[in-house]
Each structure stands twice: as structure tokens, then as C-alpha cells.
Amino acid sequence: MNWYAKFVTTDPPGEAWQGGEESSQVSINARIAGEERLADERRRAARAPVEVDARVRELGSEGCEAKVLNISTTGFMAETSAEFEVGARVWLILPGRERANAVVRWFHGDRIGAEFAEPIDTTGLLAR
Q1: What is the per-residue pLDDT across 99-128, written as a single tens digit (0 to 9) for each?
Q2: Predicted TM-score (pTM) of this structure
Q3: How far is 123 from 94, CA to CA, in rounded Å?
């Protein structure tokens, strides 16, 4: 894994941080190379490409139309016009199936990725 970091301090030049009671501000900007590959390695189950119309509903809301683009027993990616916060609990409602509870793990543009609270049965979805 490659990673890059930049260390920045607000101490005046030539003054080293001595610790103690005085405070100092430090920020570290970091980026891990190959995040997409790492996401695949983190997954517990391989995702299969699909195109299934569904609804995604945050707990306590009406929800919105979505198109599931890939799915596995442990999670899914969908395209939707709604915005979701990372960490939000949602229901994925697929046609002819019981709703599945999930946690939004990422949101970018018009896509979300979520992890199911409990593994689901994908039989019949993958054949579409």
C-alpha cells in the first residue's frame, strides 16, 4: 500500500514543540493510494453487476427511486437523486422482496454504497 502525508505545524520557524502546558496546532493531510482496490479487499462478498429498480428510504422518511447497480449478500451500490449522509440507516426496497436494512458507507455524486445490517439472499437478482 502506498500512502502520502504532509505534516504542517503552526509553531513559528525555529521553535520546536516542547510539550507541557502550552498548546500547539498540528494538521496532517493524508491520502491512501489505490482506495478503489482497498474497498474491494475490505468487502466480505464479491459484488455482482445488476440493473434493478428499487427504492431507498432513510428511516423515518418517504424515500426515493433508485437503480441498484451492483449487489452482494453484504451490500449494494445504487444511483439515486437523493442525498444521504455517511452512517445513515436506510431501507433498500427491492421489487417482490422484503426490505433490507443497511448503513450508508459512502456517498458521491448521485451514487451511494451501503452495507446490509444482515446478509441478504441475492437469488433471482443476479440472473437479471
Answers
A1: 999 999 999 999 999 999 999 999 888 755
A2: 0.65
A3: 12
